[in-house]
Design brief:
The chain is α/β, with parallel strands linked by helices. It has one domain: TIM Barrel (Alpha-Beta Barrel). The protein is built from eleven helices and eight strands. An eight-stranded parallel β-barrel has the order 1-2-3-4-5-6-7-8, surrounded by six helices. α3 links the parallel β1 and β2. It is globular and about 45 Å long. The protein starts with a helix and ends with a helix. The mean pLDDT is 95. It binds flavin-adenine dinucleotide. Flavin-adenine dinucleotide binds next to β4, β7 and α10.
C-alpha cells in the first residue's frame, strides 16, 4: 500500500486540506486556477456523508478566507445518492447554498451511467437559483447530445469530458476515435450556445481544435476555460497559462484516493506498466 501511495501522489495533492491548499497556491502562482475535490465516493453511511459535507464546508471557507483562486468539484455518491435520492438532493442543495454564500462555484462531477439522469435532473433543479453551478457531461455516452441540447436551453455551464467510467457498447462509444469525434461535435454545439464551457481534456489535438474554434466563432475568454487533472500534462498546463489561456486544474485530496487513482492508471497503459515494473523490481 505504501508503494501505491507513492504513485498516487502524482495524481493526488495529499491526504489533508493543507496539502490541497498548498497545491492550489503553487498552481495559482503560475496563473492556474484550481477546482478542489475531497475524495470519497459511494458513501453508504449517513455519518460518513455528514463528514464529507463538513469537510466541504471547511474547504469552502478556506477558499474564501485565504482568497484562493479555486472552486470545488463534488460527486453525488459522496453526498449519499446510494442511500436515497431525496437525501442526496437535500445535501447537494445545502452545500451549493453554503458555497454561494462564500462566493465559491461548484461543479458536479459525472459518475457512472446509472447516475446520469439523476445528476442532470438535480443540476436542472438547482441551476436556476445558483447560476454558477457547473455539470460534467461525458462525450463517450451516446445520450450526451440530447442532454447537451436540453442543458444549453438553460444556459448551463458545462465541463465537457471524454468519460472515465467503463460503459456498455449499447450506451457508449467504445472506440477512442468515436469518443473524440463526439467530443468535437458536442464542443461545437456548446460554442454556438451561450453558456460557459470547460474543455476538460489533456488531448492536445482537441485543445488545438478548440483554440481554433474559439478564434473562428469569436468566443471571448470569459466564456471558456481549459481544465486538466492534477499531475497530468503539467508542461501543457503551464504553456497554456503562459499564453494567457484560462486554465483550471482539478486537484483531488483526501485519504480515500484509491478509486480515483485506479481510474487514472486505467486510462493510460504506460501508467500501469510503470507501476508494475516498480512493484516487480522491489
Ligand atoms: C478537469 C477534469 C475533470 C474531469 N471530470 C470528470 C467527470 O466528472 N466524469 C468523468 O467521467 N470523467 C472526468 N474526467 C476524466 C475524463 O473523462 C478522462 O477520463 C480523462 O481526462 C482522460 O481523457 P483525456 O481527455 O485527457 O484524453 P485521452 O485521450 O485519454 O488522453 C490524451 C493525452 O493526455 C494524457 N493523459 C490522459 N490521461 C492520462 C493519465 N491518466 N495519465 C497520464 N497521462 C494521461 C496522455 O498524454 C494522453 O495521450 C475529468 C477530466 C478532467 C481533465
Amino acid at each position: 500500500m505504501n508503494i501505491l501511495i507513492y504513485f498516487a501522489k502524482r495524481f493526488v495533492a495529499g491526504e489533508n486540506l493543507e496539502d490541497a491548499i498548498k497545491a492550489t497556491r503553487i498552481l495559482n502562482k503560475n496563473d492556474i486556477k484550481t477546482t478542489l475535490d475531497f475524495l470519497g465516493e459511494h458513501t453508504l453511511i449517513k455519518k460518513e456523508v455528514s463528514k464529507n459535507i463538513e469537510q466541504y464546508k471547511k474547504l469552502i471557507r478556506s477558499i474564501n478566507i485565504l482568497k484562493l483562486n479555486s472552486n470545488i468539484s463534488l460527486k453525488l455518491s459522496s453526498l449519499g445518492i446510494d442511500i436515497s435520492k431525496k437525501y442526496c438532493l437535500k445535501n447537494l442543495s445545502y452545500l451549493v447554498k453554503y458555497a454561494s454564500k462564500y462566493k465559491v462555484a461548484v461543479t458536479i462531477d459525472m459518475e457512472g451511467s446509472k447516475y446520469t439522469t439523476t445528476t442532470i435532473n438535480f443540476y436542472k433543479k438547482l441551476h436556476k437559483k445558483y447560476p454558477n453551478l457547473e455539470i460534467a457531461i461525458q462525450a463517450n455516452l451516446k445520450r450526451s447530445y440530447k442532454d447537451i441540447l436540453s442543458l444549453i436551453k438553460r444556459k448551463a455551464n458545462i465541463r465537457l469530458v471524454k468519460g472515465a467510467y467503463k460503459e456498455s457498447s449499447k450506451i457508449s462509444y467504445l472506440k477512442k476515435e468515436d469518443t473524440n469525434k463526439n467530443y468535437i461535435y458536442l464542443l461545437i454545439k456548446l460554442i454556438k450556445s451561450k453558456g460557459f464551457i470547460a474543455i476538460a481534456t489533456h488531448d492536445q489535438k482537441i485543445i488545438e481544435k478548440a483554440k481554433n474554434y474559439f478564434k473562428k466563432y469569436n468566443v471571448k475568454k470569459y466564456r471558456y476555460e481549459f481544465q486538466m487533472l492534477y499531475g497530468i500534462r503539467r508542461n501543457l498546463q503551464i504553456e497554456l497559462a503562459d499564453k494567457s489561456f484560462p486554465i483550471r486544474v482539478y486537484v483531488p485530496y483526501g485519504k480515500k484516493w484509491l478509486h480515483y487513482f485506479y481510474r487514472r492508471i486505467r486510462e493510460r497503459k504506460e501508467n500501469l506498466f510503470f507501476v508494475l515494473k516498480y512493484l516487480f523490481r522491489s
